[in-house]
Write a structure and sequence with these properties.
With about 270 residues, this protein is an alpha/beta fold. The protein is about 35% helix and about 25% strand. It has 10 helices and 13 strands. The two termini are about 35 Å apart.
Length: about 270
């Protein structure tokens, strides 16, 4: 079985000298890992280009901080404004679209806030706020959390946790979904993580389809001018593979219960 390191936030302690020349470290989002897609891509990457990827599974905010510190060679994240700021500040060499899916709203099957009939994502959140139905937020500065926060901001919702219905948990996608399942609460998830989630309990996907819920993933190599130890050649080889027809086939054909989870759109 292929050896690879899966490291979660709070457990990261790997020095630059601990990874051999045919390895590279990439910080990826918890939503990407929770989808199961990495289990399909990593063996193919090793087989095709002889590269073993050590994945550090964190939220987008933490992935960007790891990139800034030079603790990884590249990042694969989904928060465009943060990515563009990362490149503009010189921490990354460039940003490359790889694939996309979408965010969805999940909640109790009986849908007490009535979001299933909402016309927009903002209307769905307004219904939750008006009903003061329990909503679980990741609250972890991830790409998912940032998008959720921007949608709440657009309706000027009062998210003071003293209200009781808005629960910020500061956790990754899987842990946040577990919390929502345990509380029978609403939550915003990426579609892939929801479909691959095994503890759905009384929850169901209730709302999707608004263009505001589009979820783009991008690849950003860390700038070797700031961190000379980063593995530029390996990062370039990985980018070439991630934008290849081989990656396109694997990404577009990855399914759970007959449903596609990601769509390749590398430019």
């Amino acid at each position: 079985m292929m050896k690879r390191l899966i490291t979660f936030l709070g457990c990261f302690a790997v020095s630059a000298t601990m990874v051999s020349a045919d390895n590279m470290r990439m910080a990826v989002t918890t939503s990407f890992h929770n989808s199961g897609l990495s289990d399909s891509l990593l063996p193919a990457i090793e087989q095709d280009i002889g590269l073993k990827l050590d994945l550090l599974v964190v939220g987008t905010g933490q992935a960007i901080r790891l990139g800034k510190a030079g603790d990884v060679d590249a990042i694969l994240v989904h928060s465009r404004s943060a990515e563009e700021a990362f490149v503009a500040a010189g921490y990354g060499t460039h940003r490359r679209n790889i694939m996309y899916n979408d965010f969805v709203f999940v909640g109790p099957k009986n849908d007490p806030a009535g979001i299933a009939v909402a016309r927009t994502a903002q209307e769905a959140l307004r219904k939750i706020a008006d009903a003061e139905a329990v909503f679980v937020s990741r609250g972890d500065d991830s790409g998912t959390h940032n998008r959720e926060r921007s949608l709440w901001g657009a309706i000027a919702a009062n998210l003071d946790q003293k209200n009781g219905w808005y629960r910020s948990v500061g956790a990754g996608m899987g842990a946040a979904l577990n919390t929502a399942s345990g509380m029978n609460a609403y939550i915003m998830s990426d579609r892939a993580s929801w479909l691959n989630f095994g503890n759905k309990g009384g929850l169901a996907m209730l709302y999707a389809g608004d263009p505001a819920l589009f979820n783009q993933y991008a690849y950003l190599p860390v700038n070797p001018l700031l961190h000379r130890h980063v593995k530029t050649t390996q990062a370039k080889n990985l980018e070439a593979w991630l934008t290849s027809s081989r990656a396109k086939e694997l990404i577009n054909n990855y399914q759970i219960d007959g449903e596609k989870l990601f769509f390749f759109n590398a430019e």
